[in-house]
Amino acid sequence: MANLITTLSNHLVHHPTITNFHWLPPQTWGSTPLFLTLTIFTYLTLTITLNHTPLPTPNPSLLRFISTVHNLILFLLSLIMAVGCSLSTFSQMPNHRWIFCFPPNHTPPRGPVFFWSYIFYLSKLLEFIDTFLIIVSGSKRRLSFLHVYHHSVVVVMCYIWLSTSQSLMPVALVTNASVHVLMYGYYLLSGLGFRPAWKMLVTNCQIVQFVFSFLVSGLMLYYHFTTSFGCSGFLGWCFNAVFNASLLALFINFHFKNYAQKKKKL
Questions:
Q1: How far apart are CA 180 and CA 225, in angstroms?
Q2: Which residues pair with residue 22 across a beta bridge?
């Protein structure tokens, strides 16, 4: 086990590209507000346009293959990000409080933890493909407000993580990536012809993730208001908290409509 952790650390923490990472707008690709704005605008424009445009029916086998590859990539990427950020956090943190509260003015967005935050940010752009696969497949009823809202605003959240060196970012990244391992694992198996019995578990884990984020936020707030220097990225955390609260409400509503009502009918 120790040899495995050492090997993983060498590749996911101590690699020169990871160790020397520094978020430096505009040198870092995708780090400018203009890039963020144009990316979200393009995503929303294409989503609305394609959703209201008659599209030719694609070859089912080809579409299934593309979807399977996409889900496999995001499954593996989510797993790597969860492991990489976990190992990087333990390697980079000066003390346990650092996990929850970055010291302001002393936590520039560089090093292994912020490298994985950057990869996480880029992965959210890759997840846009989810939307277009839904549209092309003709399953437009799956294209809910929750789906589009989540995919577009989460990119803003990840951008704020990096631009403000937001406290609690490592916890949020690891928990979210872990949930996505489960979610894309489910999609991957479904695409391969298996139907896992734990579909509802994915939604439950997403809800638990948001509840957990509010619980650990209490610890961050304690550190922020009981120390003279506070915690880095507090305004970014405020945005994150409002976003998570809105997602929690939407996911609870989704859970009720898709599971609770179905049970009543049975």
A1: 32
A2: 110
